[in-house]
Amino acid sequence: MNEHTHLVIMAGGKGARFWPLSSEELPKQFLDVTGCGRTMLQSTLDRFKDLVPIGNVWVVTLAQYAELVREQLPELPAGNLLLEPCGRNTAPCICYVSWKIKKRDARANIVATPSDHYVENLAAFRTAIVDALEFAAETDAMVTLGMKATRPETGYGYIKADLSYASSRRKSIYRVDGFIEKPDLEHAKEYYAQNSYFWNSGIFIWSVTTVVNAFRVYDAQMSRLFEGLWNVYDTPEEQARINEVYPQCESISVDYAIMEKAEDFFVRPSDFGWSDLGSWHSLLEQLQKDERGNATVGPDVNLYDTHNCIVHTAGEKKVVVQGLDGYVVCEKDGTLLICKLTEEQRIKLFH
Amino acid sequence: MNEHTHLVIMAGGKGARFWPLSSEELPKQFLDVTGCGRTMLQSTLDRFKDLVPIGNVWVVTLAQYAELVREQLPELPAGNLLLEPCGRNTAPCICYVSWKIKKRDARANIVATPSDHYVENLAAFRTAIVDALEFAAETDAMVTLGMKATRPETGYGYIKADLSYASSRRKSIYRVDGFIEKPDLEHAKEYYAQNSYFWNSGIFIWSVTTVVNAFRVYDAQMSRLFEGLWNVYDTPEEQARINEVYPQCESISVDYAIMEKAEDFFVRPSDFGWSDLGSWHSLLEQLQKDERGNATVGPDVNLYDTHNCIVHTAGEKKVVVQGLDGYVVCEKDGTLLICKLTEEQRIKLFH
């Protein structure tokens, strides 16, 4: 555990996925999606246990979710919860928290992570994080974790690595050749067939100096807005001034604002069973399945003649499903969804 | 409204059908199965409005359901609720209440009906009841309503009428040639093809004199048990004595004890859209269906690409079903069932 290691958890997503399990009032990061007993946000913090002192953990979320974060992470210091007055994607979030961290600890090294992703192999995850952190601390480089593709997925962005150009300091870290947005199936198959393409995990590792400088260079306007608040950080004025400044920010992802423009971006290829859990189908892929391909979350779920289904009914005392193949069944707080997994992209139209 | 007309509602069934909607704690007769706003028991009483004074309405049920009856029929006089200490089928129920009615009104004419059947056409129902009541009052005959078969149903018993032998008093009432238990499909088709076979509705019409005499002749032992309590009826001792006597009764239906042995049984053919609602499928048949053959009970049920389903989710705020054909979906108090209608006979094995 290094005293200069900081963790930024981005927990502002409104994710409409997993309806009716999730909702705008209770997005995915605040839910125990996998039935493990911890919410996605809690699991995200759990993964960094023994890597980051709790005083160095920062959570950025929408103001409306403040109470949810306080309930779910009671150990988080009050001053480390940063509240966005409105959603502006990830760049303002990272810019704001980076300036805050810089004021607190000018020698900080930061891991910035989404709050709603799934990781299967914790040991491999920690090895990759430690590796990337050490590299970022030593070189002032920006690093992202690239996931080994296990299928020609069209739902993820890709990172092309220059495998001939391993870092001299870390054999396991390569220079990034380019970032690629979510491809069509044809391209996804092409990337999947090659070993130099990785899924973009959205997990970034960098020193506070590096990321602050990157904002200064690549998004000077946004950088000035948050640098201008230097003297009000950690004062009673801070939230009011943030509430003024935030709406002025462009709504832009850190990928667009910084990552794709930076010259020196590196990727740490990793294979720790990762998913952004972007769909019921991807959740089914991650959950433990019975011999008929079904995954269930709930106290008393009974399946008959049923295959390849995900039944997520944690609030139901008893569930009986007979004769379904390839469906999601979800009940939450008086709302019930039954839908073919092949049709799940239509769920957003249903509610 | 005739002051000597009495109504006996048999409400002691534990009906395990319609799980999880119904349960032993809350059987079908106490539920609003069709979503009409009234329970089956309440609807049964409603059908006799203006035909029977409320003081002449009798409900026989298991002691454990007493409070449910009082809640659902608050207008029922306290002394007209008869409580069985244990289930003994319909013969002891009819014998007990008949002796009670005889003591109250020796000139009574009685309609005895199940509490959990469905009737579509109320006007036709009332015409049939009035017809049969007048006939029973005039002739001391026993009458049952025979339902015009609308399909070769194997789930009902049949009545064979001697159509050449219409009553001289009522052209619409025929002598019964025989009672037939639930047939196999081959026989059901045969009966359906002929116009002299009717479904046995389980609704009986007779004078109190006739039914009491029938018990004396055909089940003297049971008759003596209840005749022996003549002096305790309507006294504080009644329930305690009934609790002693009831377990001594043979568990037997009135059909076996009386009906099949009686010489002079008559049938009033009727066609008022009747069902015993013995299955989810039969409920689907009775409910109003959309153009895709679906019936729903619930405040906000949304169906997509869905056909021939019954969705009974009165307690759910919102339901979305996509891509089902021929299923029952039912949620009640934290229990959810999804099952193919063709497999519904297995539901009893699921819970």
Could you give the topology of this structure?
2 copies of one chain form a homodimer.
Chain A: E1 5-10, H1 40-46, E2 57-62, H2 66-72, E3 81-84, H3 90-104, E4 109-114, E5 118-119, H4 122-139, E6 142-148, E7 158-166, E8 174-180, H5 185-193, E9 197-207, H6 208-218, H7 220-227, H8 238-245, H9 254-259, E10 265-270, E11 274-275, H10 280-286, E12 295-297, E13 301-304, E14 310-312, E15 318-322, E16 327-332, E17 335-340, H11 347-350
Parallel strand pairs in A: 1-2, 1-4, 2-3, 6-10, 12-14, 13-15, 14-16
Antiparallel strand pairs in A: 4-9, 5-11, 6-9, 7-8, 7-9, 8-10, 16-17
| Average pLDDT taken over every residue of chain A | 94
Output the structural class of chain A: alpha/beta
* Number of contiguous helices of chain A: 11
**Largest sheet descriptor of chain A:** 5 strands, mixed, barrel
Which strand order do you get reading across the main beta sheet of chain A?
6-9-7-8-10
Rough shape of chain A? globular
Largest interface, Cβ cutoff 8 Å = A-B, 31 and 31 residues
For the termini of chain A, the CA-CA separation is 45 Å
The ordered H/E elements of chain A are EHEHEHEEHEEEHEHHHHEEHEEEEEEH
Strand content of chain A is 25-35%
**Oligomeric state of the chains present here:** homodimer
Helical content of chain A, roughly? 25-40%
The low-confidence parts of chain A are none
- Radius of gyration of chain A, Cα only, in angstroms? 21 Å
Strand tally of chain A = 17
